[in-house]
Amino acid sequence: MRVIEWREGSLRFLDQTRLPLEEIFVTTDDEYVVADAIKRLAIRGAPLIGIGAAYGFVLALNKVTDASKVPAAIERASILLSSTRPTAVNLFRALERMKAEAAAFMSAPLLEFKLHLLEEALAIHREDEAMCRAIGEHGAALLPNAAVVVTHCNTGRLATGGEGTALAVIAKAWELRTLKHVYMDETRPLMQGARLTAWELKQLGIPSTLMTDSTAAFLMQRGLVNAVVVGADRITLNGDVANKVGTYGLAVLAKHHGIPMIVAAPTSTLDFTLVNGSEIPIEQRNGKEVTHIGETRIAPEGVEVYSPAFDITPGELISAIVTEQGVMQYPFRDPIKRLRPGRSRAL
Amino acid sequence: MRVIEWREGSLRFLDQTRLPLEEIFVTTDDEYVVADAIKRLAIRGAPLIGIGAAYGFVLALNKVTDASKVPAAIERASILLSSTRPTAVNLFRALERMKAEAAAFMSAPLLEFKLHLLEEALAIHREDEAMCRAIGEHGAALLPNAAVVVTHCNTGRLATGGEGTALAVIAKAWELRTLKHVYMDETRPLMQGARLTAWELKQLGIPSTLMTDSTAAFLMQRGLVNAVVVGADRITLNGDVANKVGTYGLAVLAKHHGIPMIVAAPTSTLDFTLVNGSEIPIEQRNGKEVTHIGETRIAPEGVEVYSPAFDITPGELISAIVTEQGVMQYPFRDPIKRLRPGRSRAL
To answer: B205: nearest CA in chain A?
Structure first.
């Protein structure tokens, strides 16, 4: 099953807001439907948002029948799609690429112009798929035989154009028959593990077990786990990793139990402007995500909540960082410097 | 506010099923109302169940107006109250005490007989209060000045006849002005932290903050916490502690960050038949507690769940075990042996 796909002039995508209870696909040739899908999280995950926006741009320009109206259509599509999720950097990168492609072929015949835009959107998608595949291959080679892996949050096909990052590692190891089982944290407060990762692993037929976030420690103590694999939101020059809150605790526990802690992320996650993790600002989530489940209050009125969206894992607690370019081992400063910014076109 | 209280021939108790949204008290002179309250968790927490059952026994015998009917009433009350929560050891201990008291004064005039039963129930309640007070005093002395404490699950007045165990330590430190702030884990899956501890700390006016279970690690890393205080379900001869799942992870994190890990529990929690924690059976909870919130499914159909009710923290990760008899430091084997079983009458 493909989460997003170009099919004969239309875009077909999975409505993630209905997961895991229903698998509803939407097929549309209307960029407004795509923009709305991004806004309401039907299409989510930074790389997937970029891919969706690129296809949305194609749909918008496909409607144009008069070459003189192309510039206005570009302007309209850019405003529409860029206003959906203002903080997703991949969205803006994808739209920049689409606009550059449009500018380059502005004087071509209209049909050729449209084909170039589609080719660019397909390239953005394909590059993301290739990035996922490379991460999966590099990462799977790191796992022990009969690997029993703990993972956190959602890092798979629902967030990227391919197999994902940490979940690509897991899926590749399953294909190579070196993976035995996956334990996934439910990932409070937003339950991405319970809702999305559980669904993805079931789709892939990978034996997996759901648990509360505080159960992982006990699994490790009992010797039931031999690797932790997670994604990353941002990685600094010294290899400090910002990722979904709970990652740092897993890293300390992995260290205590002598279990490898593996981070899988594209090189686009590397922030070459930051020396270490203390420079990463910590986004605070709305307390209601903790005090309420849906609209039902579970904690008393007026309780104060501390809910950082992510935490910082220092590089020295990480065994390996896997990107599409290969595997880096601690200490990370030199291998990260050698990656050179901008070498990858991945979103 | 008292969670359970004898008032002029009646029992008054807080209906905990309505917390934290409503504070509803029930006043009754009917033992069937008490038995039902225990069964539906309106009265919960092992020591509190014992106290509730003792008062229920008094109410049942108070109805008797003919001395010849006392033996049958004792039999009926015992069966009614002991069938409410079959695994709560405190319930059976309390009923044994009430029956022994009844047997001792069976030949006394009916009014005197009833007074002796009431005195015994009040004694059970008072002893539990004294136990909590002593734990609070011993434990508060261990906390650093301007203590910022992480706690887990619910260990307070809602579970005992007094101020609780870990929460008694926290309440006493607040009274002594050595406590600055409490961070409480929400405690998945049943949310005792979010629902009950948050409510109790608000009642006590203690500054407190709610967080997801996986946020504690990040707090420790940032140096925002200087002690962890938790309760215990069972303690073995070498000081291994079974407590709500998540406790072991907190202990590893506390060790990693050089923060004291304090366990507060009555001596009745000590199991003198078990040499170490590996002998404690691990109760598995129903997976629905993880896959559903209330009746709403959040994880996909058919997902496998691993949900141990508690975990085992080895004694070497615990800085101190506080009981009503005082403070024990690691290694615990000798001080625990010196406690001698049965010395305390606490439930």
So the answer is: A303
